[in-house]
Amino acid sequence: MKNKALTLALFSCVVCTAGFGQWTSQLSDNFDSYSFGDQPGGYWYNSSATTDTGANSLVTNQDGGTSSTNVTLPANNLGGGNALYFFDTSGGATRAAMNVSSTGSNFDVVRVSFDFSLPTIVSGTSTFGVITLTSADNTNFSSSSDRAVSISVKNDGQLVWSGGSHTLSNPSSAHSLSIVANGTDADYSYAALDGSGTSTISSYSFDLYVDDALIKTSIAFSTDSVELGRFGFTTFGGAQGDFMIDNLEMYSAAIPEASTMMLLALSLGVLPMALRYRARRKSRTN
Asked: Which of 133, 226, 118 is nearest to 168 (CA)?
């Protein structure tokens, strides 16, 4: 290979390493390993006892029915197999959460995707529960001060965050939701999940996708100091409703170290200089 071709190849390799948004798959759950009426186990945390019938998170299946604790669970309408069903019929409260990784680590950037529905639409616009990202192993995320990402779920099918909202069309049918959260003090760029190009998230904020469309970018965190290591859902005392999820997938991405970025910047500057030097040398030789 000639020197110029080799230099161009090296330049291309350096440019390739500059891309952000290189996702590392972490934990996932389709709830098919559990039996009907179970609480999810393993890496899941649950605040309610398995016998709580007023407010809980229990696994349902594609048929639905009555659990061993005498709770009526609707059929999974998010596809075949099992799903996790959050319900509150007594105005109580329940919380369940799963760490992003098996190591219980916190990450700079986290992506969470899942399917969901609101099987029973309750009249009124009160907030039934909150979708959240919080620090790994945090069990107290009922307050906004304990949450980084905070998306309220209202009984009429609205998703609400600080400064905005999105109303679902037919909330009781199947929908999808993805969150890309940036827990660093710098902007973060990645390939948008809807295929629209590059999305850049501001520091301590998140992008929200619903039904494969980017709804809002750079939504501010509720609390900047809360790290990203656990996905969860919590209901509110006094508000009744339900929420079903399935096909939960979680990913992480790392921000390159400053030394790596400096080396990259130097490489991007030195290689073009080498090309120009090579061209001048060839010109003098001719």
From this structure: 118
Q: Which residues pair with 116 in a beta bridge?
A: 175, 245
Per-residue pLDDT tens over the stretch 217-264: 999 999 999 999 999 999 887 778 899 999 999 999 987 655 444 444
Separation between Cα atoms, residue 26 and residue 34, nearest integer Å:
20
How confident is the model over 180-225, as pLDDT tens digits? 999 999 999 999 999 999 999 999 999 999 999 999 999 999 999 9
Q: What distance in Å separates the CA atoms of residue 11 and residue 164, rounded to the nearest whole number?
A: 43
The closest alpha carbon to 231, from 93, 124, 129, 99, belongs to 99
Q: Distance between alpha carbon 113 and the CA centroid of its chain, in Å?
A: 5
Domain range 27-253, CATH architecture: Sandwich (2.60)
pTM: 0.83
Could you tell me which residues come within 8 angstroms of residue 181 by beta carbon, excluding any fewer than 6 positions away?
109, 110, 111, 112, 133, 148, 149, 201, 205, 206, 207, 221, 228
Strand-pair partners of 117: 244
35: Cα within 13 Å, side-chain hemisphere: 4
The alpha-carbon radius of gyration of the chain (Å, integer) is: 23
Q: Where in the chain is the domain with CATH 2.60.120.200?
A: 27-253
Which of 162, 242, 178, 172 is closest to 21 using CA atoms? 178
